[in-house]
Design a protein that fits this description.
Elements: E1 5-18, E2 21-34, E3 38-42, H1 49-56, E4 65-74, E5 77-78, H2 84-88, E6 95-98, H3 102-105, H4 112-123, H5 128-141, H6 147-152, H7 160-172, E7 178-182, H8 190-207, E8 210-215, H9 218-222, E9 227-232, E10 235-241, H10 242-247, H11 252-259, H12 274-279, H13 289-300, E11 304-317, E12 326-339, E13 343-347, H14 354-361, E14 369-374, E15 377-378, H15 384-393, E16 394-397, H16 401-404, H17 411-421, H18 428-441, H19 458-470, E17 476-480, H20 488-505, E18 508-512, H21 516-522, E19 525-530, E20 533-539, H22 540-545, H23 550-557
Parallel strand pairs: 3-8, 3-9, 6-7, 7-8, 13-18, 13-19, 16-17, 17-18
Antiparallel strand pairs: 1-2, 1-4, 4-5, 9-10, 11-12, 11-14, 14-15, 19-20
Helix pairs in contact: 4-5, 4-7, 5-7, 7-8, 17-18, 17-19, 18-19, 19-20
Protein backbone atom coordinates (compact mmCIF):
# COMPACT_ATOMS: atom_id res chain seq x y z
CA UNK A 1 0.00 0.00 0.00
CA UNK A 2 1.36 3.41 -1.05
CA UNK A 3 2.09 5.77 1.85
CA UNK A 4 0.41 9.21 1.67
CA UNK A 5 2.43 12.15 0.33
CA UNK A 6 3.55 14.45 3.14
CA UNK A 7 5.40 16.85 0.84
CA UNK A 8 4.78 17.35 -2.87
CA UNK A 9 7.02 19.60 -4.95
CA UNK A 10 5.70 20.31 -8.44
CA UNK A 11 7.47 22.08 -11.34
CA UNK A 12 9.63 24.19 -9.00
CA UNK A 13 11.91 26.81 -10.56
CA UNK A 14 14.18 29.17 -8.57
CA UNK A 15 16.12 32.16 -9.88
CA UNK A 16 18.91 34.30 -8.43
CA UNK A 17 19.46 37.92 -9.43
CA UNK A 18 22.81 39.67 -9.90
CA UNK A 19 23.31 43.17 -11.29
CA UNK A 20 19.90 43.13 -12.93
CA UNK A 21 20.42 39.72 -14.54
CA UNK A 22 18.12 36.79 -13.72
CA UNK A 23 19.79 33.39 -13.55
CA UNK A 24 17.53 30.35 -13.18
CA UNK A 25 19.38 27.73 -11.10
CA UNK A 26 16.55 25.26 -10.35
CA UNK A 27 14.71 24.14 -13.48
CA UNK A 28 11.18 22.81 -13.19
CA UNK A 29 11.87 20.03 -10.64
CA UNK A 30 9.23 17.71 -9.18
CA UNK A 31 9.54 15.17 -6.38
CA UNK A 32 7.60 14.06 -3.32
CA UNK A 33 8.19 12.74 0.20
CA UNK A 34 5.95 10.10 1.77
CA UNK A 35 4.99 9.86 5.43
CA UNK A 36 7.62 7.97 7.48
CA UNK A 37 10.09 7.81 4.58
CA UNK A 38 13.78 8.72 4.09
CA UNK A 39 14.41 10.44 0.76
CA UNK A 40 18.04 10.90 -0.31
CA UNK A 41 18.97 13.84 -2.55
CA UNK A 42 22.42 13.50 -4.14
CA UNK A 43 24.54 15.54 -6.53
CA UNK A 44 27.66 17.69 -6.68
CA UNK A 45 28.05 21.24 -5.36
CA UNK A 46 25.95 23.57 -7.48
CA UNK A 47 23.44 20.85 -8.40
CA UNK A 48 20.70 22.65 -6.45
CA UNK A 49 20.27 20.17 -3.58
CA UNK A 50 20.54 22.71 -0.74
CA UNK A 51 18.83 25.61 -2.53
CA UNK A 52 15.71 23.57 -3.31
CA UNK A 53 15.60 22.39 0.32
CA UNK A 54 15.99 25.92 1.71
CA UNK A 55 12.98 26.88 -0.42
CA UNK A 56 10.86 24.35 1.53
CA UNK A 57 11.56 26.32 4.75
CA UNK A 58 11.29 29.77 3.13
CA UNK A 59 14.99 30.37 3.78
CA UNK A 60 16.09 31.49 0.32
CA UNK A 61 18.30 34.63 0.47
CA UNK A 62 16.11 37.74 0.46
CA UNK A 63 16.20 40.25 -2.42
CA UNK A 64 18.56 38.16 -4.56
CA UNK A 65 16.46 35.03 -5.11
CA UNK A 66 12.86 33.98 -5.63
CA UNK A 67 10.65 31.06 -6.61
CA UNK A 68 9.57 31.86 -10.16
CA UNK A 69 7.32 28.87 -10.77
CA UNK A 70 5.78 25.81 -9.15
CA UNK A 71 4.39 24.79 -5.77
CA UNK A 72 5.52 23.13 -2.53
CA UNK A 73 2.52 21.38 -0.95
CA UNK A 74 2.77 20.44 2.73
CA UNK A 75 -0.29 19.42 4.78
CA UNK A 76 -2.59 20.69 2.02
CA UNK A 77 -1.06 24.19 1.99
CA UNK A 78 1.28 25.72 -0.58
CA UNK A 79 4.43 26.86 1.26
CA UNK A 80 5.40 29.20 -1.61
CA UNK A 81 2.45 31.45 -0.65
CA UNK A 82 3.36 31.87 3.06
CA UNK A 83 4.87 35.00 4.57
CA UNK A 84 7.74 34.95 7.10
CA UNK A 85 5.44 35.09 10.14
CA UNK A 86 3.49 32.06 8.92
CA UNK A 87 6.78 30.21 8.28
CA UNK A 88 7.84 30.79 11.91
CA UNK A 89 5.02 28.51 13.05
CA UNK A 90 6.23 25.76 10.72
CA UNK A 91 10.03 25.99 11.12
CA UNK A 92 11.25 23.79 13.95
CA UNK A 93 7.78 22.58 14.84
CA UNK A 94 6.59 20.97 11.60
CA UNK A 95 9.75 21.00 9.45
CA UNK A 96 13.24 21.14 11.00
CA UNK A 97 16.72 21.26 9.48
CA UNK A 98 20.21 20.02 10.43
CA UNK A 99 22.91 22.04 8.69
CA UNK A 100 26.26 20.83 7.37
CA UNK A 101 28.50 22.78 9.73
CA UNK A 102 27.25 22.66 13.34
CA UNK A 103 29.93 25.07 14.61
CA UNK A 104 28.61 27.89 12.44
CA UNK A 105 24.97 26.94 13.18
CA UNK A 106 25.33 26.88 16.97
CA UNK A 107 25.60 30.12 18.94
CA UNK A 108 29.14 30.24 20.44
CA UNK A 109 28.01 32.51 23.31
CA UNK A 110 25.28 30.16 24.61
CA UNK A 111 25.64 26.75 26.23
CA UNK A 112 24.40 23.76 24.21
CA UNK A 113 21.58 23.17 26.70
CA UNK A 114 20.33 26.78 26.56
CA UNK A 115 20.16 26.64 22.75
CA UNK A 116 17.99 23.52 22.70
CA UNK A 117 15.85 24.85 25.58
CA UNK A 118 15.21 28.03 23.60
CA UNK A 119 13.63 26.01 20.76
CA UNK A 120 11.55 23.91 23.16
CA UNK A 121 10.23 27.02 24.96
CA UNK A 122 9.46 28.74 21.63
CA UNK A 123 7.29 25.95 20.26
CA UNK A 124 5.77 24.32 23.38
CA UNK A 125 3.98 25.39 26.57
CA UNK A 126 6.56 23.78 28.89
CA UNK A 127 8.03 25.70 31.84
CA UNK A 128 11.78 26.41 32.04
CA UNK A 129 12.44 23.48 34.37
CA UNK A 130 10.33 21.16 32.18
CA UNK A 131 12.20 22.41 29.08
CA UNK A 132 15.52 21.57 30.77
CA UNK A 133 14.29 18.06 31.64
CA UNK A 134 13.09 17.62 28.05
CA UNK A 135 16.49 18.83 26.71
CA UNK A 136 18.41 16.35 28.88
CA UNK A 137 16.04 13.62 27.69
CA UNK A 138 16.77 14.64 24.08
CA UNK A 139 20.53 14.53 24.75
CA UNK A 140 20.09 10.97 26.02
CA UNK A 141 17.98 10.10 22.98
CA UNK A 142 20.75 11.23 20.59
CA UNK A 143 23.22 9.28 22.76
CA UNK A 144 25.33 12.18 23.96
CA UNK A 145 27.68 11.10 26.77
CA UNK A 146 27.18 12.84 30.14
CA UNK A 147 24.09 14.91 29.14
CA UNK A 148 24.43 17.20 32.20
CA UNK A 149 27.99 18.13 31.19
CA UNK A 150 27.01 18.74 27.54
CA UNK A 151 24.05 20.85 28.75
CA UNK A 152 26.47 23.26 30.49
CA UNK A 153 29.18 23.10 27.79
CA UNK A 154 29.71 25.71 25.06
CA UNK A 155 29.98 24.47 21.43
CA UNK A 156 33.80 24.89 21.31
CA UNK A 157 34.16 22.57 24.32
CA UNK A 158 32.74 19.47 22.60
CA UNK A 159 33.79 17.37 19.58
CA UNK A 160 32.43 17.66 16.02
CA UNK A 161 30.34 14.51 16.38
CA UNK A 162 28.89 15.77 19.67
CA UNK A 163 28.05 19.17 18.12
CA UNK A 164 26.21 17.38 15.33
CA UNK A 165 24.23 15.39 17.93
CA UNK A 166 23.27 18.65 19.70
CA UNK A 167 22.01 19.96 16.33
CA UNK A 168 19.98 16.75 15.85
CA UNK A 169 18.53 17.08 19.39
CA UNK A 170 17.55 20.68 18.55
CA UNK A 171 15.98 19.61 15.25
CA UNK A 172 13.86 16.80 16.75
CA UNK A 173 12.95 18.74 19.94
CA UNK A 174 9.46 19.61 18.70
CA UNK A 175 8.85 16.25 17.01
CA UNK A 176 8.73 17.64 13.45
CA UNK A 177 6.95 15.77 10.69
CA UNK A 178 9.89 16.41 8.32
CA UNK A 179 13.61 16.58 9.14
CA UNK A 180 15.91 18.00 6.44
CA UNK A 181 19.53 16.83 7.00
CA UNK A 182 21.86 18.87 4.76
CA UNK A 183 25.26 17.09 4.49
CA UNK A 184 25.11 16.27 8.23
CA UNK A 185 28.13 13.95 8.21
CA UNK A 186 30.51 15.50 5.64
CA UNK A 187 33.31 16.57 8.01
CA UNK A 188 32.92 13.70 10.48
CA UNK A 189 35.04 10.60 11.06
CA UNK A 190 33.88 7.45 9.29
CA UNK A 191 32.85 5.82 12.61
CA UNK A 192 31.00 8.94 13.85
CA UNK A 193 29.39 9.20 10.40
CA UNK A 194 28.13 5.63 10.75
CA UNK A 195 26.78 6.41 14.25
CA UNK A 196 24.92 9.51 13.00
CA UNK A 197 23.38 7.56 10.10
CA UNK A 198 22.19 4.80 12.45
CA UNK A 199 20.92 7.39 14.93
CA UNK A 200 18.87 9.25 12.28
CA UNK A 201 17.39 5.99 11.01
CA UNK A 202 16.46 4.94 14.55
CA UNK A 203 14.93 8.34 15.39
CA UNK A 204 12.97 8.29 12.14
CA UNK A 205 11.46 4.93 13.04
CA UNK A 206 10.76 5.87 16.68
CA UNK A 207 9.20 9.26 15.91
CA UNK A 208 7.54 8.17 12.62
CA UNK A 209 8.96 11.26 10.91
CA UNK A 210 10.12 11.71 7.33
CA UNK A 211 13.70 12.69 6.46
CA UNK A 212 15.21 14.42 3.44
CA UNK A 213 18.91 13.41 3.56
CA UNK A 214 21.15 15.56 1.33
CA UNK A 215 24.67 14.45 0.37
CA UNK A 216 27.17 14.30 -2.48
CA UNK A 217 28.05 10.72 -1.48
CA UNK A 218 25.75 8.19 -3.13
CA UNK A 219 27.21 5.23 -1.15
CA UNK A 220 26.45 7.02 2.11
CA UNK A 221 22.90 7.92 1.07
CA UNK A 222 22.19 4.31 0.10
CA UNK A 223 22.74 3.30 3.76
CA UNK A 224 19.83 5.42 5.04
CA UNK A 225 17.43 6.25 2.19
CA UNK A 226 14.34 4.43 0.89
CA UNK A 227 14.31 6.41 -2.37
CA UNK A 228 16.90 8.63 -4.09
CA UNK A 229 16.65 11.81 -6.18
CA UNK A 230 19.76 12.57 -8.28
CA UNK A 231 20.32 16.24 -9.18
CA UNK A 232 22.69 17.79 -11.72
CA UNK A 233 22.98 21.51 -12.56
CA UNK A 234 19.50 22.35 -11.22
CA UNK A 235 17.70 19.42 -12.85
CA UNK A 236 16.52 16.08 -11.51
CA UNK A 237 18.19 13.56 -13.81
CA UNK A 238 16.92 10.40 -12.13
CA UNK A 239 14.83 9.24 -9.17
CA UNK A 240 13.70 5.89 -7.84
CA UNK A 241 14.15 3.37 -5.04
CA UNK A 242 17.67 2.78 -3.68
CA UNK A 243 18.33 -0.64 -5.22
CA UNK A 244 17.20 0.55 -8.68
CA UNK A 245 19.37 3.70 -8.59
CA UNK A 246 22.38 1.83 -7.24
CA UNK A 247 22.19 -1.43 -9.20
CA UNK A 248 20.53 -0.30 -12.45
CA UNK A 249 21.16 3.46 -12.88
CA UNK A 250 19.66 4.67 -16.15
CA UNK A 251 21.61 7.92 -16.45
CA UNK A 252 25.32 8.24 -17.24
CA UNK A 253 25.66 10.92 -14.55
CA UNK A 254 24.35 8.57 -11.85
CA UNK A 255 26.79 5.86 -12.96
CA UNK A 256 29.57 8.46 -12.84
CA UNK A 257 28.66 9.45 -9.25
CA UNK A 258 28.82 5.80 -8.17
CA UNK A 259 32.18 5.14 -9.86
CA UNK A 260 34.09 8.35 -9.05
CA UNK A 261 34.79 7.15 -5.51
CA UNK A 262 38.11 5.25 -5.06
CA UNK A 263 37.54 1.48 -5.16
CA UNK A 264 38.48 -0.64 -2.16
CA UNK A 265 39.29 -3.61 -4.46
CA UNK A 266 41.62 -2.19 -7.13
CA UNK A 267 43.95 0.79 -7.51
CA UNK A 268 43.38 2.79 -10.70
CA UNK A 269 46.29 4.77 -12.17
CA UNK A 270 43.94 7.73 -12.48
CA UNK A 271 40.59 8.27 -10.76
CA UNK A 272 37.75 8.92 -13.23
CA UNK A 273 35.91 12.23 -12.83
CA UNK A 274 32.27 12.93 -13.72
CA UNK A 275 33.41 14.58 -16.97
CA UNK A 276 35.53 11.54 -17.87
CA UNK A 277 32.43 9.33 -17.67
CA UNK A 278 30.21 11.73 -19.57
CA UNK A 279 32.83 12.27 -22.32
CA UNK A 280 33.80 8.59 -22.46
CA UNK A 281 37.43 9.31 -21.54
CA UNK A 282 37.60 7.37 -18.23
CA UNK A 283 40.90 5.48 -17.91
CA UNK A 284 40.47 1.99 -16.46
CA UNK A 285 44.19 1.14 -16.20
CA UNK A 286 45.10 -0.31 -12.81
CA UNK A 287 48.37 -0.39 -10.88
CA UNK A 288 49.27 -4.08 -10.62
CA UNK A 289 50.70 -5.61 -7.44
CA UNK A 290 53.94 -6.25 -9.37
CA UNK A 291 54.26 -2.57 -10.37
CA UNK A 292 53.54 -1.56 -6.78
CA UNK A 293 56.16 -3.98 -5.42
CA UNK A 294 58.83 -2.63 -7.82
CA UNK A 295 58.02 0.96 -6.84
CA UNK A 296 58.27 0.08 -3.14
CA UNK A 297 61.60 -1.71 -3.65
CA UNK A 298 62.99 1.49 -5.20
CA UNK A 299 61.54 3.75 -2.44
CA UNK A 300 62.52 1.65 0.58
CA UNK A 301 66.11 0.94 -0.52
CA UNK A 302 67.06 4.56 0.26
CA UNK A 303 67.72 6.24 3.61
CA UNK A 304 64.55 7.64 5.27
CA UNK A 305 63.76 11.29 4.60
CA UNK A 306 62.05 11.59 8.00
CA UNK A 307 62.41 9.42 11.07
CA UNK A 308 60.21 9.91 14.13
CA UNK A 309 61.48 8.17 17.29
CA UNK A 310 59.50 7.64 20.52
CA UNK A 311 57.65 10.93 20.04
CA UNK A 312 55.42 12.25 22.81
CA UNK A 313 53.31 15.37 23.11
CA UNK A 314 51.73 16.12 26.45
CA UNK A 315 49.24 18.90 27.15
CA UNK A 316 48.61 20.31 30.62
CA UNK A 317 45.09 21.49 31.36
CA UNK A 318 44.00 23.51 34.39
CA UNK A 319 40.28 24.06 34.87
CA UNK A 320 40.38 26.48 37.84
CA UNK A 321 42.57 28.64 40.13
CA UNK A 322 42.90 26.01 42.85
CA UNK A 323 42.46 22.83 40.85
CA UNK A 324 45.32 20.46 40.25
CA UNK A 325 46.74 20.56 36.68
CA UNK A 326 45.88 17.49 34.61
CA UNK A 327 48.15 16.08 31.91
CA UNK A 328 46.98 14.49 28.69
CA UNK A 329 49.21 12.68 26.19
CA UNK A 330 47.90 13.53 22.71
CA UNK A 331 50.81 11.60 21.12
CA UNK A 332 52.39 8.73 23.03
CA UNK A 333 55.60 6.90 22.06
CA UNK A 334 55.12 7.17 18.26
CA UNK A 335 57.88 5.92 15.95
CA UNK A 336 57.94 5.53 12.16
CA UNK A 337 60.06 6.18 9.05
CA UNK A 338 59.08 8.10 5.91
CA UNK A 339 60.97 7.69 2.62
CA UNK A 340 61.47 10.06 -0.32
CA UNK A 341 58.74 9.62 -2.95
CA UNK A 342 56.44 7.80 -0.51
CA UNK A 343 52.87 8.65 0.49
CA UNK A 344 52.32 7.70 4.12
CA UNK A 345 48.65 7.51 5.07
CA UNK A 346 47.58 8.55 8.57
CA UNK A 347 44.09 7.59 9.74
CA UNK A 348 42.14 7.51 12.98
CA UNK A 349 39.16 9.13 14.66
CA UNK A 350 39.08 12.75 15.86
CA UNK A 351 41.28 13.16 18.91
CA UNK A 352 43.56 10.24 17.99
CA UNK A 353 46.58 12.57 17.64
CA UNK A 354 46.89 12.86 13.81
CA UNK A 355 47.00 16.67 13.68
CA UNK A 356 49.10 16.94 16.88
CA UNK A 357 51.67 14.63 15.28
CA UNK A 358 51.74 16.68 12.05
CA UNK A 359 52.10 19.93 14.07
CA UNK A 360 55.10 18.43 15.86
CA UNK A 361 56.71 17.47 12.51
CA UNK A 362 56.08 21.01 11.23
CA UNK A 363 57.57 22.38 14.47
CA UNK A 364 54.40 24.34 15.13
CA UNK A 365 54.16 22.46 18.45
CA UNK A 366 57.24 21.37 20.41
CA UNK A 367 57.35 17.66 21.25
CA UNK A 368 57.49 16.80 24.97
CA UNK A 369 59.84 13.84 24.37
CA UNK A 370 61.44 11.90 21.53
CA UNK A 371 63.12 13.07 18.33
CA UNK A 372 62.25 13.93 14.72
CA UNK A 373 65.12 13.44 12.28
CA UNK A 374 64.72 15.16 8.89
CA UNK A 375 67.54 14.31 6.46
CA UNK A 376 69.45 12.91 9.43
CA UNK A 377 69.18 16.04 11.61
CA UNK A 378 67.07 16.23 14.78
CA UNK A 379 64.75 19.15 14.00
CA UNK A 380 63.40 19.30 17.58
CA UNK A 381 66.72 20.97 18.54
CA UNK A 382 66.80 23.61 15.79
CA UNK A 383 67.04 27.36 16.48
CA UNK A 384 64.20 29.70 15.43
CA UNK A 385 66.08 30.85 12.32
CA UNK A 386 66.82 27.23 11.32
CA UNK A 387 63.13 26.31 11.79
CA UNK A 388 62.20 29.21 9.50
CA UNK A 389 64.46 27.74 6.79
CA UNK A 390 62.90 24.32 7.41
CA UNK A 391 59.44 25.76 6.59
CA UNK A 392 60.53 25.90 2.94
CA UNK A 393 61.19 22.16 2.91
CA UNK A 394 58.11 20.97 4.82
CA UNK A 395 54.77 22.42 3.74
CA UNK A 396 51.11 21.76 4.61
CA UNK A 397 47.88 21.77 2.59
CA UNK A 398 44.98 22.50 4.92
CA UNK A 399 41.44 21.10 5.00
CA UNK A 400 39.86 24.53 4.53
CA UNK A 401 41.86 26.53 1.96
CA UNK A 402 39.53 29.53 2.35
CA UNK A 403 40.45 29.92 6.04
CA UNK A 404 44.16 29.64 5.23
CA UNK A 405 44.11 32.27 2.45
CA UNK A 406 44.10 36.00 3.25
CA UNK A 407 40.76 37.33 1.88
CA UNK A 408 42.40 40.73 1.22
CA UNK A 409 45.17 39.34 -0.97
CA UNK A 410 44.68 38.33 -4.59
CA UNK A 411 45.53 34.72 -5.37
CA UNK A 412 48.71 35.76 -7.16
CA UNK A 413 49.99 37.79 -4.19
CA UNK A 414 49.02 35.01 -1.73
CA UNK A 415 51.25 32.55 -3.63
CA UNK A 416 54.06 35.09 -4.15
CA UNK A 417 54.22 36.11 -0.48
CA UNK A 418 55.96 32.96 0.89
CA UNK A 419 58.23 32.89 -2.19
CA UNK A 420 59.43 36.37 -1.29
CA UNK A 421 60.00 35.39 2.37
CA UNK A 422 62.16 32.40 1.36
CA UNK A 423 64.04 34.21 -1.43
CA UNK A 424 62.62 32.25 -4.34
CA UNK A 425 62.90 34.26 -7.56
CA UNK A 426 65.18 37.27 -8.07
CA UNK A 427 62.34 39.86 -8.28
CA UNK A 428 58.53 40.20 -8.38
CA UNK A 429 58.45 39.88 -12.17
CA UNK A 430 60.32 36.59 -11.96
CA UNK A 431 58.06 35.39 -9.13
CA UNK A 432 54.91 36.34 -11.04
CA UNK A 433 56.05 34.30 -14.06
CA UNK A 434 56.66 31.40 -11.68
CA UNK A 435 53.16 31.71 -10.16
CA UNK A 436 51.46 31.86 -13.59
CA UNK A 437 53.24 28.63 -14.49
CA UNK A 438 52.16 27.04 -11.18
CA UNK A 439 48.51 28.01 -11.74
CA UNK A 440 48.57 26.18 -15.07
CA UNK A 441 50.12 23.13 -13.41
CA UNK A 442 47.28 22.89 -10.88
CA UNK A 443 44.61 23.22 -13.59
CA UNK A 444 43.91 26.98 -13.34
CA UNK A 445 44.84 29.73 -15.81
CA UNK A 446 46.55 33.14 -15.66
CA UNK A 447 43.23 35.02 -15.35
CA UNK A 448 43.04 33.72 -11.75
CA UNK A 449 46.14 35.68 -10.70
CA UNK A 450 44.31 38.94 -9.88
CA UNK A 451 41.16 37.42 -8.38
CA UNK A 452 40.31 37.02 -4.68
CA UNK A 453 39.68 33.76 -2.73
CA UNK A 454 35.91 34.37 -2.37
CA UNK A 455 35.53 34.28 -6.16
CA UNK A 456 36.38 30.58 -6.36
CA UNK A 457 34.67 27.27 -5.70
CA UNK A 458 35.92 24.89 -2.98
CA UNK A 459 37.78 22.73 -5.50
CA UNK A 460 39.45 25.75 -7.11
CA UNK A 461 40.49 27.11 -3.71
CA UNK A 462 42.04 23.76 -2.85
CA UNK A 463 44.07 23.95 -6.08
CA UNK A 464 45.25 27.42 -5.03
CA UNK A 465 46.26 25.97 -1.64
CA UNK A 466 48.25 23.27 -3.46
CA UNK A 467 49.91 25.87 -5.72
CA UNK A 468 50.89 27.91 -2.64
CA UNK A 469 52.40 24.84 -0.96
CA UNK A 470 54.44 23.70 -3.99
CA UNK A 471 55.62 27.24 -4.84
CA UNK A 472 58.43 26.81 -2.29
CA UNK A 473 59.61 23.57 -3.97
CA UNK A 474 59.26 21.56 -0.73
CA UNK A 475 60.51 18.02 -0.15
CA UNK A 476 57.70 16.94 2.17
CA UNK A 477 54.03 17.98 2.06
CA UNK A 478 51.52 17.20 4.80
CA UNK A 479 47.98 16.96 3.38
CA UNK A 480 45.76 17.49 6.44
CA UNK A 481 42.19 16.45 5.49
CA UNK A 482 42.83 18.35 2.25
CA UNK A 483 39.99 16.68 0.25
CA UNK A 484 37.48 16.01 3.07
CA UNK A 485 35.03 18.77 2.21
CA UNK A 486 35.14 18.29 -1.58
CA UNK A 487 32.59 16.66 -3.89
CA UNK A 488 33.35 13.16 -5.14
CA UNK A 489 34.30 14.42 -8.63
CA UNK A 490 36.35 17.44 -7.43
CA UNK A 491 38.01 15.12 -4.90
CA UNK A 492 39.02 12.80 -7.77
CA UNK A 493 40.53 15.77 -9.68
CA UNK A 494 42.55 16.95 -6.64
CA UNK A 495 43.80 13.42 -5.81
CA UNK A 496 44.88 12.93 -9.44
CA UNK A 497 46.67 16.30 -9.30
CA UNK A 498 48.52 15.39 -6.08
CA UNK A 499 49.69 12.10 -7.61
CA UNK A 500 50.73 13.82 -10.84
CA UNK A 501 52.75 16.45 -8.91
CA UNK A 502 54.33 13.68 -6.81
CA UNK A 503 55.48 11.88 -9.98
CA UNK A 504 56.78 15.07 -11.62
CA UNK A 505 58.54 16.60 -8.61
CA UNK A 506 59.33 13.56 -6.42
CA UNK A 507 57.26 14.96 -3.55
CA UNK A 508 56.80 12.97 -0.35
CA UNK A 509 53.38 13.12 1.31
CA UNK A 510 51.93 12.48 4.74
CA UNK A 511 48.25 12.08 3.83
CA UNK A 512 45.85 12.59 6.75
CA UNK A 513 42.17 11.83 6.30
CA UNK A 514 39.13 10.26 7.97
CA UNK A 515 38.03 8.86 4.57
CA UNK A 516 39.62 5.43 4.53
CA UNK A 517 38.81 4.71 0.87
CA UNK A 518 40.74 7.84 -0.17
CA UNK A 519 43.68 7.05 2.14
CA UNK A 520 43.97 3.52 0.77
CA UNK A 521 44.01 4.83 -2.81
CA UNK A 522 46.75 7.38 -2.06
CA UNK A 523 49.02 5.50 0.36
CA UNK A 524 52.03 3.22 0.14
CA UNK A 525 52.31 2.61 3.90
CA UNK A 526 49.55 3.28 6.38
CA UNK A 527 49.54 4.28 10.05
CA UNK A 528 46.37 3.70 12.08
CA UNK A 529 46.32 5.88 15.21
CA UNK A 530 44.12 5.50 18.27
CA UNK A 531 44.28 7.59 21.47
CA UNK A 532 47.70 9.00 20.63
CA UNK A 533 49.33 5.66 19.84
CA UNK A 534 50.01 3.65 16.69
CA UNK A 535 47.60 0.71 16.44
CA UNK A 536 48.92 -0.64 13.14
CA UNK A 537 51.68 0.28 10.68
CA UNK A 538 52.03 -1.70 7.44
CA UNK A 539 51.50 -1.65 3.68
CA UNK A 540 48.15 0.09 2.99
CA UNK A 541 46.74 -2.82 0.94
CA UNK A 542 47.79 -5.34 3.58
CA UNK A 543 46.05 -3.41 6.38
CA UNK A 544 42.82 -3.14 4.39
CA UNK A 545 42.75 -6.77 3.34
CA UNK A 546 44.02 -8.23 6.66
CA UNK A 547 43.49 -5.80 9.56
CA UNK A 548 45.02 -7.21 12.75
CA UNK A 549 43.51 -4.97 15.41
CA UNK A 550 39.84 -4.67 16.37
CA UNK A 551 40.04 -0.88 16.13
CA UNK A 552 41.22 -1.07 12.49
CA UNK A 553 38.47 -3.57 11.69
CA UNK A 554 35.92 -1.16 13.17
CA UNK A 555 37.21 1.71 10.99
CA UNK A 556 37.11 -0.40 7.82
CA UNK A 557 33.67 -1.80 8.66
CA UNK A 558 32.32 1.76 8.98
CA UNK A 559 33.23 2.75 5.37
CA UNK A 560 30.04 3.35 3.31
CA UNK A 561 30.11 0.62 0.66
CA UNK A 562 26.79 1.12 -1.11
CA UNK A 563 24.52 -1.80 -1.94
Amino acid sequence: MQKPKLLDIKDLSISFFSEGTENEIIHNISYHLHTNEVLGIVGESGSGKSVSSLAILGLLPKNISKITKGSIQFNAQDLTLLNQKQFQNIRGKEIAMIFQEPMSSLNPSMTCGEQVCEIVLRHTKLSKSEAKTETLSLFEKVRLPLPERIYKAYPHEISGGQKQRVMIAMAISCKPKILIADEPTTALDVTVQKEIILLLKQLQQEEQMSIIFISHDLSLVSEIADRIVVMYKGDIVEQGNVSHIFKSPEQLYTRALINSRPSMDSRLKQLPTIDDFINGTANSEIITSEERALQHKRIYNEHPLLEVKNLEKEFISKSGWFSKPESFKAVNNVSFKLYKGETLGLVGESGCGKSTLSNAILQLDKATAGSIHYKGEDITKLSKSAIRKLRKDIQIIFQDPYASLNPRLTVGKAIMEPMKVHGIGSNDKDRKANVLELLLKVGLDDTYFNRYPHEFSGGQRQRIGIARAIALKPQLIICDESVSALDISVQAQVLNLLNELKDNYSFTYIFISHDLAVVKYMSDQLIVMNKGEIEELDDADEIYSNPKKEYTKKLIHAIPKGL
